Amino acid sequence: MISTSYFEVVQQLLSMCTCCDQIFSFHRLVLCRTHPVDPLFKFSTSLTKQRFLNRPLKEIERALCLLPLCCVIIEAKQEDEQVSLEQVNELLSKQKEMFVALLQQQQDNFQCFAKMILDSTNQRLDTLTREVQEIKTSIQFTQKEVDDIKISNTDQADHGKALQVDIMKICDSLLVLTDKLEYLEGQSRRNNLVIDGIIETPGETWTEAEEKVKKIFAEKLQLQRSIEVERAHRTGKPLMGERPRPIVVQFLTHKDRSAVLQRAKNLKGTKIFINEDYTDTVRQKRKELIPKMRAAQERGGIAFLRYDKLVIHPRSSTPKPSVET
């Protein structure tokens, strides 16, 4: 049986320890056989902390191989036995198997961890790819909606322009119709006169108003012939205590209307006035022209209203009069 000296093994291990603290730790491991703490743990911890980081790889491997052998030697020394080479080889084989199993387990753990990381990464990439695809689809759908809106806006713009043209035509037609209506209303009033200042009695009827008008024609205007009045009535709502409402007189012929209008100057000083029956539009225009007419008269010129226009010319000569609308 080939034996290995206990002190030879110790000497080989001590060759790894150049620091006093390590030697002290090793001797404490070997000499304190009855210490309750695992000696392998103490020795490996001491070497790991203080020497392994600064030693060559071959020496570290050699020390690690001798550690379990040292423990066996320590146990054999306690029983005063010799350690055979077969026991050392058996221990080294077991240690090799342990390291191989440990490395395999670490490899399996690493592969499992790598697979878990890879699966998580692939899952996240799949999720990101799906989200990107959804965003792309949403953008394409939104772009299609935008294009449809642009086309719709273009169609609406064209339709709006066509409507604007139609509205302009309608406005022109309305203006023409308004002018025609204004002309027709003026023609319907051409045989009318408006008389202001005739006293109004409560509950006055159209017949009574007509009789008052005929009496003024005979007495105030001194018309010798009979004037045919088709209708005479007051306009507006009656207001008690206010000035009397005007009377609209409709003559049967335009000749009678002209005769009454020519004699209207005979009513001067009687607070009774005879005017033509204009439409509301013409009446508003005449109202706006009155200040200009009075200003022209104050300047010494001759100014008067003719229908809805203002006629102005100087007094000293008879040039062509100017007309303002």
Description:
With 325 residues, this protein is of the alpha+beta class. Among the domains are: 6-83, no CATH class; 189-277, Alpha-Beta Plaits (2-Layer Sandwich), CATH 3.30.70; 278-325, no CATH class. The protein has 8 helices and 7 strands. The strands form 2 sheets. A 4-stranded antiparallel beta sheet has the order 2-3-1-4. Helix 1 (6-14) packs antiparallel against helix 4 (57-78) and helix 2 packs antiparallel against helix 3. The chain is rod-shaped, with a radius of gyration of 65 Å. The model is unreliable at 1-7, 16-55 and 72-81 (pLDDT under 50).
Q: How do the strands and helices of this protein lay out in sequence?
A:
Elements: H1 6-14, H2 20-31, H3 39-50, H4 57-78, H5 85-188, E1 192-196, H6 206-219, E2 229-234, E3 247-251, H7 254-262, E4 273-276, H8 280-298, E5 302-306, E6 309-313, E7 322-324
Helix pairs in contact: 1-4, 2-3, 3-4
Could you state the order of secondary-structure elements as H and E? Answer: HHHHHEHEEHEHEEE
Query: Can you summarize the main beta sheet?
Result: 4 strands, antiparallel
Low-confidence stretches: 1-7, 16-55, 72-81
Q: Helix segment count?
A: 8
State the CATH superfamily name of the domain at 189-277: L1 transposable element, RRM domain
Strand order of the largest sheet: 2-3-1-4
CATH class of the domain at 189-277, named Alpha Beta
CATH architecture of the domain at 189-277: 2-Layer Sandwich
CATH fold type of the domain at 189-277: Alpha-Beta Plaits
User: What do the pLDDT scores average to?
Assistant: 76
Task: Please indicate the percent range of residues in DSSP E strands (runs of 2 or more).
Answer: 5-15%
Q: Termini distance?
A: 148 Å
